[in-house]
Design goal:
- The chain is α+β, with helices and mostly antiparallel strands.
- Helix content is 33%, strand content 20%.
- The protein has helices at residues 10-24, 68-82, 132-149, 183-206, 241-251; strands at residues 34-40, 44-49, 55-61, 102-106, 111-119, 124-125, 210-212, 221-224, 227-230, 237-239.
- The strands form 3 sheets. A 5-stranded antiparallel beta sheet has the order 1-2-3-5-4, with helices on both faces.
- The relative contact order is 0.14.
């Protein structure tokens, strides 16, 4: 079927990918688990409950442009944060071969898809209307995360992008040949982008470059019994703390 697979109704895609997820779980020695798709947007995330009742979250990258080296970096940083006091995150789970990234050929799409397994987080996503208590907890966790990442070093097998361009590496539909802007709109937006790029260069020259979360909003934050948990590190990269703060404020 090839790429036509991703044009199928979402329900059919999820059914196929759930079966694929069940096969990937065998790499972890997990057989006969209950597997259900809980998020199907940019990537596919599955809730996994083993026969013994242990729960996990399996993410399979279906649309992500992240490389295996990027995923390795994600795992290394989350494992580092696991050991940092005052920051709560899910824990990456290793396979029976002590590897953290799994892959397999998804026959229906004709693509090799990659996945990572994390420990399960109980609680509820904070969403778009956090309480004052939750915002205070987020500010403290963000500060600890940024402080911890200043000294963090990736292994030679891991790579992350640097978010120094104004679109963070995504495709430009505003100023490229694909633009549908009028001449007046193009000129106005280009002027704004020039300011953004100048300010970004100033901030990057005045601050240390370090690993940041890159997508720190309320739907990537879990609240459980008065504790805040940060998850979904799939967009992490090198940047400056201002960028994480800006994303959080944007979503608010």
């Amino acid at each position: 079927m090839g790429t036509e697979f991703f044009e199928l109704p979402a329900e059919e895609q999820q059914l196929s990918l759930t079966a694929f997820a069940t096969e990937l779980l065998k790499n972890y020695g997990i057989h006969g688990a209950k597997v259900s798709c809980i998020n199907f947007e940019f990537n596919a995330t599955f809730a996994v409950e083993s026969e013994s009742g242990v729960k996990y979250a399996l993410r399979i990258n279906i649309n992500s442009t992240r490389t295996v080296e990027n995923m390795q970096a994600e795992v290394e940083w989350v494992r580092h944060l696991n050991r940092t006091s005052g920051i709560d995150t899910p824990t990456p789970i290793a396979t029976v071969k002590d590897e953290y990234i799994v892959s397999g050929l998804h026959v229906e799409s004709g693509q090799t898809l990659y996945g990572v397994l994390y420990s399960w987080l109980d609680g509820e996503e904070i969403g778009d209307e956090p309480t004052h208590e939750q915002l205070v907890a987020l500010g403290a966790a963000m500060a600890r995360m940024h402080q911890s990442s200043r000294e963090f070093m990736l292994s030679e097998e891991a790579v992350l992008p640097t978010f120094s361009d104004w679109l963070w590496g995504t495709e430009d539909f505003l100023l490229s040949s694909k633009s549908l802007l009028t001449k007046e709109q193009f000129t106005a937006i280009k002027s704004a982008i020039d300011i953004i790029e100048a300010d970004t260069r100033d901030l990057f020259s005045a601050n240390p470059i370090q690993v940041i979360h890159g997508d720190l909003h309320g739907w990537n934050l879990m609240w459980h019994e008065g504790e805040l948990f940060i998850f979904d590190f799939d967009d992490c990269g090198y940047g400056i703390p201002h960028q994480d703060l800006a994303i959080t404020l944007y979503y608010l």
